[in-house]
Structures are given as C-alpha cells and as structure tokens.
Amino acid sequence: MLAIRFHGRGGQGAKTASRIVGTAAFLEGFVAQDSPIYGAERRGAPMAAFTRIAKEPIRERGLIAHPDVVVVADASLVGDPAAKVLEGVDATTVLFVNSPMSAEQFSAEVSVVGRLTTLNLTEIALQRLGKRGAISALLGAVAGRLIGLHQVSIHEAVARELAELGLPTSVIEQNQTVAKYCYETVPIVALETRPRRTVPVALHTPTYESPTRGTAGITVGPNSAIRSVGGWRAFRPVLRPDLCNGCWLCFANCPEGAITIKPDGRPAIYYPHCKGCLDCVEVCPTDALTVEQETAATNK
Amino acid sequence: MSWEPQRFKDLHQIPREEHVFPGAPLCAGCGGLESLRLASKVLGSHVVYVNAAGCFTNLATFPFTPLDASWLYTTMGSAPAGAQGVRDALDVLIAKGRLPKDEDVTVVVVGGDGSTYDMALSSTSGAITRKLDFYYFCYDNEAYGNTGVQLSPSTPYGAKTTTSPCAVQRPVGATQEKKDIFEIWRAHNPPYVATVSPRFPLDLEEKFLRASKYRGPKLFLGFAACPTGWMFDPAYTPDVARLAVECGLWPLKEAVDGKVVHTYLPKLSPVDDYLKLQGRFRHLFEPIVRQDVIAHIQDRVTAYWERVKQTELKA
Amino acid sequence: MNQIDQMMMTGNLAAAWGARLADIDYVPAFPITPQTEIVETLAKWCSEGSLNARFVTLDSEHSMMTAAGAAAATGARVFTATSSQGLLHAFEVLYTVVGWRVPLVLVNVSRAVASPITLEPDHNDVLAARDTGFVQIHAETCQEVLDSILMAYRIAEDPRVCLPAIVNLDGFILSFTREPVMVPNPEMVKQFLPPFRPAHLGFKASAPHALGTAVSGGATYSYFRHQLHLASINALGVHDVAAIEFERLFGRRYNVVEGYRLEDAEDVLVMTNAYASKGKAAVDKAREEGRKVGLLRLRMIRPWPADAVRHALIGKRAVAVLDQNLSPGQGGILFQEIAACLYHEPLRPRALCSFIGGLGGKNISEGEFLAIFEQTAEAGIRGNGIGPVLLYTEAEHREMEQLQFLAHELKTGR
Fold it and tell me: Which terminus of chain A, N or C, has less C-beta within 10 A?
C-alpha cells in the first residue's frame, strides 16, 4: 500500500488533489481510499487530506501517520508545528513542496527530513491559469507522477473531480493542460518503501484533576494573540505613510484588529495578525494602502 | 434625515481599545467578526458572551480565546435560555450578597442566522417575553455557514447554497423569501431592535450605545458578508457590505419600543451591482442573464422602500 | 430535634421539600406530567417567600436545562425537574452541562416514553441518560426522595465530583402517592450541606472565564471526557462519606445498594425504584412458602456500584434481574450491566435470569412474582440463565385481543 498525505490551507485545493489521486488510482484498477481531516470550514486555516492506494483491500483508516509521500501545497506550513507536516516523515519519505526554490535551496533554508522535490505551482498557476487560486489539479498531477500513476488517468481524474465542484468545461480543460505540464516538469524522486517495525508507545492513565483543569475552559483569556495567522496570507497590504490622511477607515474595517492606531493617530499594521483579506486596501480613500504578493522571504 | 448620531459622528470616535483580539481562527475577511469587533468596543469587557452553535463557536477553541470577556458555548437552539440562566444567577448572587455588584457582567447572546432564524426562535421568543435584560447579536451570513453553507431561512431568493443548488429543475437556487426576523422580534415588543452593517461602523456603534440605555431585550441583526459562503474574494467584503445597504436590500433601521426609524436612506442603486459581485448569484448572470429573477428581487426591494416612503418618511 | 414531625406527603412534595431544604437559588421550570406538582409547589413557595429562590418558566425542557446549567455555571445552586419526553427533549443539554462540570440536581419523575404515548411509569427515560455523566440515584420511597436530593447536592458539589445529579422517582407510584415522610430540620441540613461556593465556576467582570470551548484533536477530547469518568467514580467514595454523615444527623442510612433478606438467600431478585417494595413483599411471601430468596435494590445507577453488586451476588445460586425497561433487540438494560460486572467472579451465580416487567406502569402481580421465583429456581438448578422473559399474563393478553378487535375489526358504523 502507498500512503500519500497532502497538506494545504483551506481553499488551496489539497482535498481535491487527494481525490484526484484517489480517482486516478481507481481508474487504473487500484483500490483507493481518500479522505480529508474534517473541521469547520475555514478558508486559510491549515488542513490535511489522505490518499491510500493498494492492490488489495485497504485496512487502514483516518490520518496517515507514516506517509510514503507528503505533498505540501503551501511552503509556510512546513515551519508551522500545528500543521504537523513532518509528522512520521523519515529519510525515505518523498516530500514535495510547492515553492519557488529548488530542492537544494529549500533544504538550505529549512531543515527537513525526507527526500525533497519542489516545483513552483503558484507561479505556474498564475502564469498559465491567470490566477493564484486553487491549485488542486496541479497538486494532484505532481502527486500522481511521484507515485507512478499514468498521465491519462490524472487527466481523466482532473475532469471528474473539477466537474464535481461545478467548474465550467473551459476551466477544466485549462486545468488539465497545466496539470499535464506539471506532471511532466516536476523533478522525480524515486519512491522507496521499506518495511517498518511498529514503534511501541507508552500508555498513560490520567488521574483526576481539579475541575478547573479537567474542564474545557480557559481562565487566562484573551490569549489568541500569541498565535500568528500571517501564514494565511497570499497577499499583504502595505501602507505608504506619506499618502495616509489619518481617516481611520482601515482601522474601522479590519475584522481582525490587526491594524492599531499609533499615538500620532496614524494606523500601523501588525503582520503576524494580518490574514491578508485586504479589506483595508478596499476602503482606503487615498490609495495609501497597496497590495504586494506574499513570498516566503517576506512572510515572517 | 432625522436620525442623527449623538456620539459616533466621526471615525475618530471609534474607541482604539480592542476587546476581540487577533488570532481567532475565523475566515479572512469575515463580515461577522468585523461587526463583533466594532460592537465590543461599545459593550466593553465586562460581558459574558453566550454562544449558539455556528461559525463563532470557533472563536474559543481550547486553549485560546480572543476575548477579554467571558464566554459560554451552549447549544444551537438555546443560547437565549443560557442567557436567562446566567442573568438570573447573577441577579440572585448579587441579591444574596455572594457576588459584589461591581462584578456584574452584561449578558450578550451571539449566534448566526442558522440558529437565530430556526431553532432558537423558541428560546428567543421566551427570553423576550420574559423581558430578559440581555443583548442578542445575530451575525447573518444568510446560510448555515459553519457546516459548509447550506440553506437557512435567512437565505434570500435566488441564492445558491449546497442544499439549494441551481440545477435544471430548479435553476433559481433558493425559492423561498428571506424570513423577516426583525419583524418577528419586533412583534414581541422589546425595547430595542436594530439592523447593522460593519461597513457603517458609526451607525453600528451608535446603535449599541443607544441600546445600552434600555433595560430588557436588545436585539441586533448584523449583516455578515461571507467571502467563503457567498464566493467572493475577501477583499470585496466592504464593497458587498456597502452595496447591500445602498441597493436597499439591507435596510439600516432601529425600532425603539416597536416604533421603526430607518437610520440611513440608501441611494437605491440597482440590485444587479450587489448580486454581480457574488459567486452565489453567478447563475443569475451566466450563461444567460435571468432577468425574471433579478426583477423579482428588485421589485421586492422597491416595494419595501415605497412603503417606507409612504409611512415613515411622510410622518 | 433533627426533624420536623412526620407528614403525609406525595413523592412530588417530598422532592419539593428536598429542594427547599437545600436552600436552592434558582428553579428554571417547565411543566410535564407527572412532575408538575413539584414545580407548582416551588413556584408557590418562591412567591410567598418561604423559599428564597428565583423561579422562571422556560419555553421548553431543552431551554430549561440550558438555563439550569448556565445558572449553575454562574455559581447558583440550581434545582429542576422533568420526566420522559421532557428529559428526552433536553437530551443534548444533559451532556453539555456535564461537560461544564456544573453541580445541580435534576429530579426525573419516571414515565414511559412515547410512542405509544402514555403517562405511566417505567425507566427507559432515566436509563437513557446513564451515559451522559450525570450521577444517578433511584428512590424507592417518598422519604428516600427527599433524603436523596440532599445527598445529591452534597455529592455533586464535592470538588472531587462536580457533576450534575439525577434523582429518579416513579411517576404515579411515588409522585402522586402519599406516605409518611420525616422532614429534616433546616438547621441540621445546613450542617450536612455546606453553602455552594464553587471555585471553578462563575462569570465575573474581574475574572473572564471561557467555558464550553470547542476542542480539536481527539487527544484533548479524550482527556476531558475521561475526567468525567474519574469524577463519577469518585462519587462512590464521596457518597459513602455523605451517607455516614447523613445517618449521624438524621438517623437514616443509605448505601449504594440495599439488600433485603440477602444473607441466607439462595436466589436473589434484583430491582430498582418503587416497585422494589412489591418485590420485598413478594420475598416475604416466598419465604413463608419455603423459598430462600432475597432482594437486592440498586439505588445508585451511576456511578455503577460494581463492588457492591458483586459482593451482594457472588455465591448465590441464581439471580433474577427485573428490568422495568426494555432495550429492543437486546433486553433488560440493568441485566447487561450486572452480567458484565459478575463475569470474572469465580463464585458468580450459576444462572442469570432476565425479566422485563412493569413497562408503562403495568402492575406486577403476586402471581408474576411467583413465576419469577419458580423459573429462576429452575434455572439455578439447570445452571442456565433465561430471558428476557416478558411479565405479561394470559388474562392481560385476552384483554389485549379484545382491544385489537375493537380497533381493527369491529365496524360500528356511524
């Protein structure tokens, strides 16, 4: 059995990608099982999806703890411990990251285990599909190539899954073309599966704790601000202070409270709290707020 | 226009202090979160938010909360009953000397339209009838959003949701008319009911301030532009929220002891401008323009404002 | 004097007295037969000032239970009551308030569940709640109803427990039946039940508290739900300490189970609630006729009193469990729980027999009790359990057939 784990942010298409691979495998006569981690629908938040492929019935369920291949749709997730991108990844795991950097460059920047390969799917999507949006077909094609599925299966699977989403034929055909390009372009890393010994775990029986600790409650709020949501951004707002007239429209319209007013009465954006919705840019009357593309370098 | 703000005349009157802090795992560009943030600047931190199941339930996900106020998540249908319990208990504890009066907190129910327009009707009706001293804030994104955008009684005619899809047999999408919860609440005769939109922050904060003068049920219906559910880029949340008001689909009004006053007179631009921005109405424009559906929507809006002109504005 | 003189009172009035003596703060209410007299009495006492509590009628039991839990979460001592359909209507809230770790007492006046709809008692309603995490105590007499409410507050509010509690009494058989009840002296009750000052609850301006938060990740949920289990298990020990104290102050001793003529019994009948009185009468009759039988009454259902049940039943020849409930497709609910806790005992009874009786309040006649003892003895001799056997007589079935004839065959015309 092969286990492929997809990581992405809600809205990027990781779930659809896992289904593209599942459908493609199914079409080739394999037994396939695909599923996402279900949570409340949340665009921008980290999520994961799982595809298992085998020749015999699959007796595993739920999350993939020991992936053969990990496909990462958003490079910023690699550094986010909550996303658990590297969980169960060892030296033999094939790790694909959607990144402008080559595998060598990426490993120099970010220490990762696994056998790395990269391709800049975001840029390809921007150039060939005209938008950054969901890269599900591209992710699916890359994953399919890395596990050795045929391009014609991917081609058909893309059509089926994108039709399920209600996309028009023209868009589906565009996606199929770009998916084929990614299939042919992604640097290959050979798949290597070794038998794995079960790692024993120590069971723990909790003891009774006081009701304060033993209940799902929080007594030190507000504390959400210690988390960064900066990784949710694809674009960031940038303020040109010389053009700002101090009207406070941006401050009033930011849903997050990421814009504060300084003592001089002018706004300041705190980027770890900015999700990149760009509402501030929309409402600014003087164009003092502009939009810049988020890159791994700027996304701190 | 007779309705004039007393305090919030200028954006610089918006308090700088936050009570809903960043880091909440809600969608980027959430119109509901925007309203809550603005409202909390008037409500302050001496509050307990009593929540019904919906998108906002994710606000307090263990171990994080973005609120400097208290929070109690109850169930989808009974947040107003939870509010009743909290308010009554606070009153009893204060009366019996077990809680100092300065530790009292304001009770604020927060729920989405799914809860508000459907299963919470019973508990809301009960709370208003009992003259419960509380706030009710509904963030209305016109669908059951947290479960993936399904039809709710708040979904307007012509909108696509996952359970009112456009298919050959039913090309319109939702064929119901949006339930008029404002009127249902107002029929109970609470001291204060209002509609708000975060794109009109001064109107919103002024209304919360006005409401604070009344004891009893104070109910707010907040327009919550939803990029995820209505399928538009989050950057357009302010445009969608503005056009909803300007084309007349979302009247800004308040009812004090049942008497309705519209607090903003919109330009009444064509509803098309508003509908066109959203993926949930795309089927009304592609592959062909559904003039009949758009006219249906437009006619109802026009009729509404005609009635307003005849009754309220003449007086 | 520790108690006021004895008074004749119904089970419902005894429940109301229990709440009054517990000096409760808040009664969210909703009417349902056969509980309504409880809330009517409390409403009267609150309005005339003999009970210093706020009484509020909610719009449904689902709302009532939410208000109850929310008020308790704010720090008030809360009492409420319901039955059957009402309990079921509040069902999701039962789990919710357990998760909030709020002590409160809910009296359930048992009533068989629809459909078909009826007003008479059985235990499918209250037993459906056994997985919620509520502590559950079942009362046999009106006295026990009053006493159990006082004990329930003490157990529920103990920091080692902090769970809500259900006290169950049978509709009609207890709720509307009058018996002599001793009403404890309120001053003595204060010694038994300290004031409610929960450290982990409350909503205050100076101390914001988020309760009932969402969790993600199964490990977090596992941890919190397991804590409920530990808290419930703690209730066994807390109950015993409370029972000793209760006996010291009021002269009545309650254990988690009650044995009646058990010591030298060969076969044992297990029952709960008010019909256990009939069971005891049947034991006496059988003893007169030469059968060495006894009765075990389960009083605490959650936490499950496994040790007490084992202790009572090991070494016996045969055990008959009389369930006044039925899980279609399986049988008696308590039968299964008893079987499970006896499984590993080398000296477990040779035969475990299941009887279903009293559904919808059906009377259990002396003849039916005789049948139980006879069939159980035979099973004990054979070494093989039987059941579930429905207690339902030939005479009753003949009546049933007549009713079916009227309902389906006799065309009366207009």
Answer: C
